[in-house]
Amino acid sequence: MSKSTVVITSIFAPTKAVKKIASLSDYQLVVAGDKKSPADWTEPNVTYLSVADQEAAGFRMSEKLPFNHYGRKMIGYLHAIREGAEVIVDTDDDNIPYDGWTFPATEGTYATSPAGKGFVNIYKNFTSHHIWPRGYPLDLILNTEHNLKEEELTQQTAKVGIWQGLADSDPDVDAIYRLVDNTEIFFEKRAPIVLAEGTLCPFNSQNTAIRRELFPLLYLPAYVTFRFTDILRGLVAQPIMWAHGYTLGFTEATVLQERNPHDYVKDFESEIPCYLHPNRVIAAVTRAIDKANTVSENLRLAYAELAKENIVSAEEIELLDLWLADVAVLTK
């Protein structure tokens, strides 16, 4: 298996995005199916994990991971880890890579934000349109003080744990944006931006690369609403990355999203935790973790604190423990 593995879950026959990724020689593609996936799913150069394959893989997660859920992707992550992936690239079956799709080096010198700014709207560094990422606190949407000014960026060496690439055409925005504006967006081309410790922005699972040292942070909570799943993961990840000396970086759009059909009002309902909890999540995770712990230990402590805050349930903790057990075996 290639050292960079792309992981997708899909309930559709191979899409345009899947076919494009499968054609790329620099990546191995793993697709995790679900009960709604076509029984005859097949595509050259793809490792397809049917429900039967997933159940036979021997992962503890299978004891509790729901079906017909985005979290089936986690079986794909575990498969990639087992096969020796050094980088896992997270994307979806409606994100079509541009030619030359790649991510910057995980260590290098990049335009870097000041530290300690709290939430920033990274989209404003890539477009002048009034737009914000899904999961961005609603009370900051009109607050320009939380936009990163170009003159604030300085060239600094960085150890980037996760790269988030943007998506053109129908980027990752919340249902409020789609209901009140929904302008198609093509982001400006520019150099990457890295967020220093204490400066954060929501990131998703749609065009995202994570290095092996942080693989435990791939955990997708399966007992929260669908539209909160990857946003919660990204919020939890950032304080833990800082504790271990890693940062989050954003790149220009490197994929085109031809979005699968959505009901925006249902999306809004599913996103309510995204609107209510971002600051509470960051506060809970920050107080729960310790630099002396491992990444996995800090992830467990973070979710225990989120359970105390009633942001996640006891069922979530049970599934997380199975994930951590699987990851521990695979990363010995």
Task: Provide a concise account of the structure shown.
The chain is of the alpha/beta class and 332 residues long. It contains nine helices and twelve strands.
Q: How many separate domains make up the residues?
A: 1
Task: Give the overall silhouette.
Answer: globular
* N-to-C series of helices and strands: EHEEHHEEEEEHEEEHEHHHH
**pLDDT averaged residue by residue:** 96
Major sheet: size, sense and barrel closure? Answer: 10 strands, mixed
Please give the oligomerization state of what you see.
Answer: single chain
DSSP helical segment count: 9
Q: Report the β-strand fraction as a percent range.
A: 15-25%
Low-confidence stretches: none
Helix content: 25-40%
> Structural class, judged by helices and strands?
alpha/beta
What Rg do the Cα atoms give? 18 Å
Distance between the termini: 19 Å
Number of strands: 12
Q: How are the SSEs ordered, and which strands pair?
A:
Layout: E1 4-9, H1 16-22, E2 28-32, E3 46-49, H2 51-56, H3 73-82, E4 87-91, E5 95-97, E6 107-112, E7 118-119, E8 154-168, H4 175-180, E9 193-195, E10 199-200, E11 207-211, H5 229-243, E12 247-257, H6 264-276, H7 278-288, H8 295-308, H9 314-330
Parallel strand pairs: 1-2, 1-4, 2-3, 6-9, 7-10, 8-12
Antiparallel strand pairs: 4-11, 5-12, 6-8, 8-11, 9-12
